[in-house]
Amino acid sequence: MTDVKRKALEDLRSQRWFAADNMRGFAHRQRMQQQGLDREEFMGRPVIGILNTWSELSPCHAHLRERAAAVKRGVLQAGGYPLELPALSLGEVMVKPTTMMYRNFLAIEAEELLRSLPLDGAVLMGGCDKTTPGLVMGALSMDLPVIYCPAGTMLNDRYKGQTVGAGTHTRKYWDEYAVGNIGRQEWIALEARMTRAPGTCNTMGTASTMTAIVEAMGLSLPGASSLPAMDAGHTRMAWACGRRITDMVWEDLRPSRLLTQGSLRNGIVAYMALGGSTNAAVHLMAMAGRAGLALALDDLDAIARDVPVLANLFPSGDRLMEDFHYAGGLPALLNKLRSRLDLGAMTVTGRSLGENIDGTACEDDEVIRDPDRPLKVATPECPEAGLALAVLRGNLCPDGAVIKPSAATPRLLRHTGRALIFDTNEDMLAAMNDPDLDVDADTVLVLRNGGPVGAPGMPEWGNLPIPKKLLRQGVRDMLRLSDARMSGTHYGTCVLHISPEAAVGGPLALLRNGDRITLDVGARRLDMDVPETELQARRATWRAPERTYARGYAKLYQEQVTQAHQGCDFAFLQGTAPTPEPPIY
Ligand code: FES
Ligand code: MG
């Protein structure tokens, strides 16, 4: 970065704590020395927080304490002083009822850690699904210089000669086990497969979608999001984060200088070209809301129409993140999409995105396709088959719903069938084993009360299992609808994020068993064939379900969470109203 106006020492935020020649300053220095630190170690230099979402119940982040050590080396060598701080660890598979309920909790924690402590900048260490938007949302609101250091991805795995991936193949094998094609012993043996190393899911799930979006928005070092966690290069990347953040403090390179309408768009272009997770549609709204940037679901639909899916990764394709890394990773992908990007957008390197990706070669055109040879192509029967995302409207979802056509069955993207409705996830799961369930392959399975308020937390229930009766007949996909989400590692013809959700009186609440539903992705429509007068009559008798929580965080969540199309942030956290620095006394 040329012509950077460097901060003066007295402008460092941490100086307010450590440089004051009064009793408070004395106490701050004294308490650092209590840990065995000499005052020369931390005084007069940028103090860098390392917000670490490591925990022993966050397997994707199992290596992050070691990586924090590498970050510290980098900070020290660049003349800063690093301090590692634990932050809420959201291990996707472990946390119940759903990590989504705690994303905003982490966002609050990240923002307030940065605000309440003597920090000049921070390295954010996360990667498992919600940790990325959570940390970034908090950092956007606090607006200190930060670099996002993604955990890196799991290694590839192969099973019986086939490439197998986290999440995607779990569901495939579960279906085969359910109908007896896989035996008990093999099922148990499979527990040790598909996730064979620390790191985030090796498919294009929510983790890799979000780390890639954040890199494309300029908040990570180039190539960081596709590095395997167990690659020695990942340790070097962590070290480089430490070096670079220290300089960023002197340059005052804050998120508000990086996140612009252009860089937000760059993130969305990456999302679509990767065939990323539908979850990103929610997180992007929330991040844009924190940055004060305009974004609507329809903007995502428009960019999806323009950007072909180029990355051949599960669940849309058949490769894994390690292959994507060998092919050149995100910089190589972005370099194929230059005309669609804001190349002038500034990044954490102090250079523009265009400069960062200049000359990045793609080493494997099968894994990262050229724009004229995308992963999925439109056919005359199904022009939408290649899209990473489509945003639907209709009398079932006036505020929107999403579907990922590239991971769906093309013939179901235009479909009419009768509704079979479940009001709770438990009822739905129990019914799926019922040999007498009144269902056929054309039935539309509906799950409601799975939204942000209803569940609460909008869990990943939206990939409803196929009823066992139909699995036995060879059925592997059906049209499914919900106000819930779906794991980015999953596939199927699932309409998700129906908004407004049933629990707040969205029209989904008025649907009845047997009503005919029509999905037409080409027209971006999702409708129930019920006359408006009948809907009004049903609305007159509708009663809101009782809120599940009378106290605690979940109560706050149900009271404050916004709808899916608004990002599910808490209403009181949105926006850019200034928050004063804490007084020091
Ligand atoms: Fe952590 Fe998939 S479970 S990234
Ligand atoms: Mg996931």
TrEMBL record:
It comes from the Bacteria. InterPro entries: Dihydro-acid_dehy_C, DiOHA_6PGluconate_deHydtase_CS, ILV_EDD_C, ILV_EDD_N, IlvD/EDD_N, Sugar_Degrad_Dehydratases. Residues 45-356 form the Dihydroxy-acid/6-phosphogluconate dehydratase N-terminal domain. It holds the Pfam family ILV_EDD_C. Keywords: Iron, Iron-sulfur, Lyase, Metal-binding. Residues 388-568 form the Dihydroxy-acid/6-phosphogluconate dehydratase C-terminal domain. PROSITE patterns: ILVD_EDD_1. GO terms for molecular function: hydro-lyase activity; iron-sulfur cluster binding; metal ion binding. Belongs to the IlvD/Edd family. This is Dihydroxy-acid dehydratase. It comes from Achromobacter aloeverae.
